[in-house]
Amino acid sequence: MHKKLQLAIKPLLKTFFILSLVLTLALGHADGALAARSGGRIGGGSFRMPSSRTYTPRTYAPPGGGYAPYGGGGFGFPFLIPFWGIGGGFGGLFTILIFMAIANFLLQTFRRISSGETTDEVGYSNNSPVSVTRLQVGLLAQARDLQTELNHIAETADTNSPEGRAEVLQEASLALLRHPEYWVYAGGGVQQAKLNSAESQFNRLSLAERSKFSEETLSNVNNQLKAALAQEALPAADELDNPTRLITEGPGEYIIVTLLAATLGKLQIPAINSADDLKQALRQIGGLPSDQLLAIEVLWTPQAEGDTLTSDDLFAEYPDLKLV
Q1: What residues contact 281, with CB distance under 8 A and at least 6 apart?
Q2: What is the pTM of this model?
């Protein structure tokens, strides 16, 4: 009787042992699978205070050649009065022309001031307002063309010039606008800061997003292009049928793209509650002029071919995103 019981229990113990081994392998590698997330990064910029142009006084050319600034020596304004009415002809006509030029200059200056324009560039101080904007979009993983577009932008972008950085934002926003059928989640907002504290605020947001990657497999920051070695070839179909592999890796479901921009002045984007709100926000960020941009970053995950981002990853790392 005892031997019969042992024979009956033995297959059950074997089955239990196999199941335990599978679960142990799955749970033992689960954390590593969730953490193995590649990311791409494009960025650049500077938070140094813009310097104003040195104002150079305008000059005029007296007959016979030679230049002298207004208010200067030579034939400047202090020496015009003696010519008034002296000998008629040259002195009087010359003085009238000079006064007409001065009157025209003053008139144009008053017009510029009244319309809000100035001759010099606007000077900035440490208390100048800066807007730090973050916009995130979660797309279905079927939008594989988007990853290819972002890779191309990273490989060819000029991130060391204001015009190049503005083009990066424009192209990244355009790439997202081209895939509205894959939009699932979105979120974002604008934080206001002073120029002297905006850099730390921008860096905090950037580090928070970059910390969600296990590795930046492609980056172009201030024209420093870096790319990790390509991953090994994808596994064969029979390996994908392995239940342990399916448990540990799960299906790739999403792509997350983050746009960061620090701009001079106060910028407002709509609260992201719908696809229309997201479309408007993308157009605003993509249309930012280069002379307002201090710094930008475009981050996305996954970047490496064959990498995955599951729904568990998304809910754990991006809990503030909303359905659109």
Answers
A1: 135, 188, 269, 270, 272
A2: 0.65
